[in-house]
């Protein structure tokens, strides 16, 4: 995820200070890892240094002064360029799940690998149920639904791969022990 671009997008809706940006990020991307305040403020500092945001005044709401930021014309242009770029499909498989299965097949026997694959399939299925409940809840926002759909699609792909791999392990086990 490009945190600077997400913050630029949030500022496109109007001036905000760091606390509001963090809260808006966490609300608008409900299934993403929450941003740390330090990350928000260091990113704002870089965006300001690069001329993409500018201070837009100070607020004080029963606490320390909070600097609000606005999107500059260069910031708006950078945001539009980023939004126009098509994301290339990932060229490498970078998944702990994939790495564990490969290592399990290297160091374990087929029964241990199969046991791991079945346990992982159960965990994925449970997470799928949780996300479906989030998505179908009466209080689900569009952000919740879109995030759940994204996660469900990825879990579904993982589940298909787990099932295929279970079949391949079974075939391999039969070949070795025939």
Structure description:
It is a single chain. 67% of the residues lie in helices and 8% in strands. By secondary structure, it is mainly alpha-helical. It folds into 2 domains: 82 residues, Arc Repressor Mutant, subunit A (Orthogonal Bundle); 81 residues. Strands 1-3-2 form a 3-stranded antiparallel beta sheet. Helix 6 packs antiparallel against helix 7. It starts with a helix and ends with a helix. The mean pLDDT is 84.
The major β-sheet equals: 3 strands, antiparallel
| Helix-strand pattern | HEHHEEHHHH
From the spread of the alpha carbons, the general shape counts as elongated
Give the spatial strand order of the biggest sheet: 1-3-2
User: Taking Cα atoms only, what radius of gyration do you get, to the nearest Å?
Assistant: 22 Å
CATH class of the largest domain: Mainly Alpha
Helix content: 55-70%
Question: What is the CATH homologous superfamily assignment of the largest domain?
Answer: Winged helix-like DNA-binding domain superfamily/Winged helix DNA-binding domain
Count every beta strand, where a strand is a DSSP E run of 2 or more residues: 3
Q: What is the average of the pLDDT values?
A: 84
Low-confidence stretches: none
The DSSP helix count reads: 7
**How many angstroms separate the termini?**
48 Å
Query: Strand content of the residues, in percent?
Result: 5-15%
CATH topology of the largest domain: Arc Repressor Mutant, subunit A
């Amino acid at each position: 995820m490009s945190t600077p671009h997400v913050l630029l997008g949030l500022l496109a809706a109007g001036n905000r200070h760091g606390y509001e940006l963090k809260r808006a990020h966490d609300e608008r991307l409900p299934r993403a890892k929450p941003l740390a305040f330090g990350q928000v403020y260091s990113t704002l500092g870089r965006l300001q240094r690069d001329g993409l945001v500018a201070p837009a005044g100070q607020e004080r709401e029963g606490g320390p002064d909070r600097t609000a930021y606005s999107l500059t014309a260069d910031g708006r242009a950078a945001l539009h360029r980023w939004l126009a770029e098509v994301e290339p499909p990932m060229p490498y498989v970078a998944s702990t799940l994939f790495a564990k299965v490969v290592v399990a097949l290297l160091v374990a026997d087929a029964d241990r690998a199969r046991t791991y694959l079945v346990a992982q399939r159960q965990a994925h299925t449970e997470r799928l149920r949780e996300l479906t409940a989030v998505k179908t809840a009466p209080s689900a926002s569009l952000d919740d639904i879109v995030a759940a759909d994204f996660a469900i699609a990825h879990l579904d792909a993982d589940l298909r791969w787990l099932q295929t791999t279970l079949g391949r392990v079974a075939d391999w086990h039969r070949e070795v022990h025939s």
